[in-house]
Specification:
The complex is a heterodimer of chains A (369) and B (335). Chain A is 33% helix and 20% strand. Chain A is α/β, with parallel strands linked by helices and 369 residues long. Chain A has a domain of 221 residues: Rossmann fold (3-Layer(aba) Sandwich), CATH 3.40.50.300. In chain A, the strands form two sheets. An eight-stranded mixed beta sheet of chain A has the order 6-7-8-3-9-10-12-11, sandwiched between helices. In chain A, strands 2-1-4-5 form a four-stranded antiparallel beta sheet. Chain B is globular, with a radius of gyration of 21 Å. Chain B starts with 5 loop residues before the first strand and ends with a helix. Classes of the chains: A alpha/beta (369), B alpha/beta (335).
Amino acid sequence: MSVIEATPTPYRPKRTGEPLLRLEGVKKHFPITRGKQIGAVHAVDGVDLEVHPGETLGLVGETGCGKSTLARVAMRLFEPSDGKIWFNGQDITRVKGDELRALRRDMQMVFQDPYASLNPRKTVGSIIGAPLRLHQTVPKSKIKPEVQELMRLVGLNPEHYNRYPHEFSGGQRQRIGVARAIALKPKLIVCDEPVSALDVSIQAQILNLLSDLQSELNLTYLFIAHDLSVVKHVSDRVAVMYLGKIAEMAEKETLYDSPKHPYTGALLSAVPIADPNIAKKKKQIILEGDVPSPIDPPSGCRFHPRCYRAQERCSVEEPELRVMDSGQLAACHFPLETRIIDAPTVTDPGSSTRSTPSPSSCWSCRRSS
Amino acid sequence: MPEPLLEVRDLRVHFPTDDGLVKAVDGLNFSMVAGETLGIVGESGSGKSVSFLTVMGLINRKSAIVEGEVIFQGQDLLKLPTDELQAIRGSKIAMIFQDPMTSLHPFYKVGDQIAEAILAHEEVTKKEAGDRAIEMLRRVNIPRPDERARQYPHEFSGGMRQRAMIAMALSLNPDLLIADEPTTALDVTVQAQILSLIDHLQTEFNTAVALITHDLGVVAEHCDHIQVMYAGKIVEEGSGDDIYYRPMMPYTWGLLRSIPRLGHVSERLEPISGSPPSMIFLPKGCSFSPRCPYVFDTCHVEEPPLEPVDGHHAAACHLSLEDRERIVREEVVAS
């Protein structure tokens, strides 16, 4: 612990310890053309990330920060412009054809909009059964019982096998999407804003379903959302993205307790808290302006034009993601020292017995294991 | 007790459809005083938007059955002829909507759209209206307002469009601003900008604000008084402390237990079972009874009235007050 504190080193993902998904220097630039290429949208611009088996990594950031693009690159739905992707120990950056198809069995996705992500002309049975038919993991005659078992698993009535998506409510449709994603028993599921389109009373049902399935089927989640309270609830670790780069990444308690990157601080302070006493004590940081265009990102630190702590160095030198003294990774020259939300993290007497190791020791044990 | 600015009495808005009568709003009573912020929370379909669209006179009276009274500054808006309503709408009561993309006209310059609202209500020249539009854009913190006024909505970002909508709504210094999910389409950082702007302008202009939202966090931070709506009715109302620390209605408990909150540790969320009822076939008795874990015989037969708990805090529930206080103490606030 003290060693890390003394010499903050630039962060490089380790090659050992077998993460399920590892990204190294991944970039995705979309070309802008007027006859010839005149520029590029730097949607993802150099991201290092690891997702360990059985964990949930939350990915937060504002609209257009590249979180969905990153997930799609990781799933090989987009070709990365640069960098490398490992899945389950295998370099999948360039796999294609049958090999890629086989790979897709192990990585599935749950989408944001349960109205748009289900084909309205197909029955629920055929939607959930589609991956089974395509990958031929079960014989044809077994597809129906298998689909009905999946429907039971996600809390749908198996008798509704022949119904169409419009006959279901938003929450039930999202259950259909989840059933389809787990049909092939994947290792990794990317959840791209799975609850943002749902009513508050329904959100909790889906979040609980996802966490039940995780322990039952030993799933790993990459959970993308813009709602920081939801991300805190579901994640083990959280990565904050800003303009195509990771600004900060940490165990969730560390990140919410002592954010180091000013952007994380601003995000946390912007979240409305449904508890007037905590809300009153919260620090108010209101960011000026909007997220700059990813076509021409600012020099130096990408956050410096909106940053309330920016100094001259920030506009010149780009900060690297490095280990901070509280254990998390942050890319900032002048990290924060104070808390944003002043509330005890452990209020539930039941969970205080589950002694949480100090964040920094936790991170270092993961790094050295 | 100050004179209420707005008083809604027994408002009912029903829509006849081929499938039956949709009782979107069914017996709504509330009042607002000048300068206060009223928060209205509820899920989609709970009637929160329809009730305020009715206050604005934006519900087509040919396709809806509207009953009750909407008294604004001593006048019943539901009985006013269209031209008199027109004079109030926009100048005395203004509204901003959820989606700033669709509520600005794409073919007209932003400055002209704001000026149009001023010209419709006041005897001013086009030049004066234009200057006031620029001044309003400055007030809502849009940089270089004179240039921005000459631009079209598509040249604005989402947050700036919502600022322009606010500029338009406040350009005539209304007494009541209705904000219908003003930040739902925006990112949290922009949401914080917009809400602090509304707070700031509210104190400056002493405008009463009705903030309609589904986000319990937004109302906790910005509202003096909160109403919780379910199936076209108010099921609980009170101050922030009442709603968050002494809620007295099972639906409110359900809401508070089902949302993850920063600063709280919860191993597991407790969702409300089932889904909101159909507004055509409302359950008999209490409309929350099919989803309520504390339901008993009376709930299926008799509709609970909204009864005062203490002061301005009121809730609609058949459970005895002692029972509810015990449940809140043991199960709701503890979690």
